[in-house]
Structures are given as C-alpha cells and as structure tokens.
C-alpha cells in the first residue's frame, strides 16, 4: 500500500509541482498524494481518507490556518498521524509555535524538494516504527487476553468448592494452587471412585507457561479418566505414562503422586511417579514423610512399571501433598524454604483444621519469599481422616 500524504496549501501551483517532482514514487505506488487548500478542507479530507498518516501543511491559509489545523489534529490523539509544517523562513515564530504544539518537523519556503523528500522519508520511517510498535502492542494485548482466558479455564478445571462433599463427614479435604505465571503446570485433583474410595492426585509438569498448562490439562484428564475405571494406583500410572509418551511432542514430562483412600478402613494405596514424598500428619501431632515407591516421572519412557504401597491412616491422621514450589521457594538471602522447614511447620500446624494448615503453609511460603518473584507454581492438597 502506498503512503497516503496530504498536502494542505493554498498555493495553486504547488499540486502540479508535487506531482511532477514525485512522479516516479507515484507511478511505483510508493506515495499517493491528497490535496487540500485550507484547514477546513483538510479535516474533510481526513474523513474521506482515514488512512492518511502524513500531512504537509502551510501555516498561513484562509478559513483555517495551519496552527488551528494542528490544534484540531492534536484533538484526535493519534500518535501515528504526523504533521510537517511548510512555511516561509521568515515565519520562524509561527514555525516554532507549531513545533511546540506537536508538529513532527518543518521545511521552509521556497521549497527545496530534495530537503522535502528527505523529510518525507524520515517521517515515514518514524511512522513505520510506530506502526510496528502498535502492532506488537496489540499482539501483546491479545496474548494477555488469551492468557487471562487460559488461566480462567485452567482454574475452572481444578476443584475449588470446599467442602467438596458436604454430605460426607468421614474425611476433610482442602487444596489450592498459586501459579508462577498467568497459567501453570501444577495440578491437583480428588474424586470419588465409588462410595468408599477417594482418589487423590497431585502433579507437576516440566516447564512453565502455555505449553506446560496444556500438558497439565492433558495429564490431569488422562489420569482421572483412567483412575475412575478403578485400576490399582500403579497400573493407573503405568497406563497414563504410556499414553503421555505417545502424546509428548516437546519432551515434556510430569511428576505425579496418586493415592486411593478407603474411607471405611483408612487404607491408603499409593504409587509415585517421581514426585515429592507427601507427609503423613499423625494424630499424635507429628509429621513424617510417606515411604516412597520407585517410579520415574510420566511421559519420559514407555512401558515403565510403578510399584504400589499401602498404609493405614488412623482416625485423625492426615495426608499433605505438595509440589516443589513450596520447598524450593527462595528468600531474599538466596535460601530455599527446604523440606526441613516444611516438616517443622507442619508439626506446628498439625492440630489445626486441614483448611487452616493449607492456608498457613501458603502464607508462610509467601512471607518467606517477600520481595522475591515467585519462580515456580505452588500447589497443595491435604486430606484428613475424621477422628471418629
């Protein structure tokens, strides 16, 4: 598309001079000139040709002079509309006034067409830069809007209504996630496999941002769909691992802990795919890590086996699942929160309600990292067997 330039001047011979001087650029489609003979006609021309971005305007004209036109153009608040003032050298006071009012540049009469072409080309280069900046700005706005939508979608697929099973009084459960970016790669989930068994899942996808969020959604969906078939935890992880290996085109993987809690007996069957060891919150007030099973992250290698283990949670015992965003959070001194600090914190919080334990761990990690940008997603899922 040619650059459309409007020339505003009441000199009758200027149009023919412009067309003659720039005939090659007009022929080659580089420039397209529009002419007006005063400020009022120029405003009308802008309505007729809204793609005009460069105006060459005289100052002294009938009906509406160049300074008044410049004031009207400023009211449009269009940074991509540039005005170059063309006036007699002896009219320097008005030229200075025009520059103070926002004119981009000026040339003097009698017009030196070499200087005019240089000024036009310089102004067009500035316009190209402005257009590119505006385009990039628009793309960033669109991306931000997409990320907001993606964040809302991601948050909507995670359970966030608590208590989730208000008719049940045999266990208490609470969870939350703070993403490091607009969207995250962590996830948690819980669901009733049947009337007696409760599935508990937490996962952490490699990487950050949109790719991790997409892989997170796929991983969570596959895990839940497989788990609801009632498969043992180890078989469930093995099946999902094979599916993820087929789908993982960006060498992504996910660590997952999956447990099945029998609400009638207190038995917890679990398998681990490279995830952080959860904590058992004992009814006596202590907190100790769960004895882990072997198993690598899901999505790394096909046909992997995942061992299972079982423990019995006594009435009042709790299970605390988390991602490494908790223990690997940094403070201003470059220190990590660490497993040791988390264990001490959980021991001190053990007597509290599950909701309070989760919220207090989030608060303690946030206070520990005051002044430091969050570098990783932080996700917690906790459950307690009712005491009686």
Written description of the protein model:
- There is one protein chain.
- This protein is an alpha/beta fold and 388 residues long.
- The chain folds into two domains: 3-136, Response regulator (Rossmann fold, 3-Layer(aba) Sandwich), CATH 3.40.50.2300; 158-385, PPM-type phosphatase domain (Phosphatase 2c, domain 1, 4-Layer Sandwich).
- It is 39% helix and 24% strand.
- It has helices at residues 14-21, 23-27, 39-48, 66-75, 92-100, 113-157, 209-227, 233-247, 324-327, 339-349, 354-368, and strands at 3-8, 31-36, 54-58, 82-88, 105-109, 171-178, 186-192, 197-205, 254-262, 267-273, 279-281, 287-289, 309-312, 318-322, 378-385.
- Helix 7 crosses helix 8 (233-247) and helix 10 (339-349) runs antiparallel to helix 11.
- The protein is elongated, with a radius of gyration of 34 Å.
Write the layout of secondary structure elements.
Blueprint: E1 3-8, H1 14-21, H2 23-27, E2 31-36, H3 39-48, E3 54-58, H4 66-75, E4 82-88, H5 92-100, E5 105-109, H6 113-157, E6 171-178, E7 186-192, E8 197-205, H7 209-227, H8 233-247, E9 254-262, E10 267-273, E11 279-281, E12 287-289, E13 309-312, E14 318-322, H9 324-327, H10 339-349, H11 354-368, E15 378-385
Parallel strand pairs: 1-2, 1-3, 3-4, 4-5
Antiparallel strand pairs: 6-15, 7-8, 8-9, 9-10, 10-13, 11-12, 11-14, 14-15
């Amino acid at each position: 598309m040619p650059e459309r330039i409007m020339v505003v001047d009441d000199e009758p011979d200027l149009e023919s001079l412009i067309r003659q001087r720039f005939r090659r650029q007009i022929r080659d489609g580089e420039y397209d000139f529009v002419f007006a003979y005063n400020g009022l006609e120029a405003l009308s021309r802008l309505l007729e040709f809204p793609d005009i971005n460069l105006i060459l305007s005289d100052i002294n004209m009938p009906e509406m002079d160049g300074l008044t036109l410049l004031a009207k153009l400023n009211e449009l608040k269009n940074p991509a509309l540039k005005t170059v003032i063309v006036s007699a050298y002896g009219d320097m006071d008005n030229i200075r006034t025009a520059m103070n009012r926002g004119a981009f540049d000026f040339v003097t009469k009698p017009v030196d067409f070499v200087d005019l072409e240089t000024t036009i080309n310089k102004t067009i280069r500035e316009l190209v830069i402005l257009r590119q900046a505006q385009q990039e700005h628009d793309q960033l706005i669109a991306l931000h809007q997409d990320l907001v939508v993606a964040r809302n979608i991601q948050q909507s697929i995670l359970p966030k209504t608590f208590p989730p099973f208000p008719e049940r009084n045999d266990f208490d459960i609470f969870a939350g996630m703070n993403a490091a970016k607009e969207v995250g790669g962590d996830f948690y989930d819980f669901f009733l496999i049947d009337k007696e068994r409760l599935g508990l899942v937490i996962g952490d996808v490699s990487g950050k941002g949109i790719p991790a969020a997409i892989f997170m959604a796929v991983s969570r969906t596959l895990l839940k769909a497989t788990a609801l078939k009632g498969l043992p935890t180890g078989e469930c992880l093995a099946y999902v691992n094979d599916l993820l290996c087929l789908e993982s085109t960006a060498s992504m993987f996910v660590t997952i802990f999956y447990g099945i809690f029998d609400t009638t007996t207190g038995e917890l069957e679990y398998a681990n795919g490279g995830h952080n060891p959860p904590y058992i919150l004992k009814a006596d007030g202590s907190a100790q890590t769960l004895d882990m099973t072997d198993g690598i992250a899901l999505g790394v290698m096909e046909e992997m086996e995942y061992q299972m283990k079982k423990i019995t949670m006594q009435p009042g015992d709790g299970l605390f699942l988390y991602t490494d965003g908790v223990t690997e959070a940094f403070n201003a001194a470059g220190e990590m929160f660490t497993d040791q600090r988390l264990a001490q914190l959980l021991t001190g919080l053990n007597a509290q309600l599950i909701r309070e334990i989760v919220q207090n761990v989030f608060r303690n990690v946030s206070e520990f990292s005051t002044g430091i940008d969050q570098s990783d997603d932080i996700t917690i899922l906790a459950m307690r067997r009712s005491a009686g």
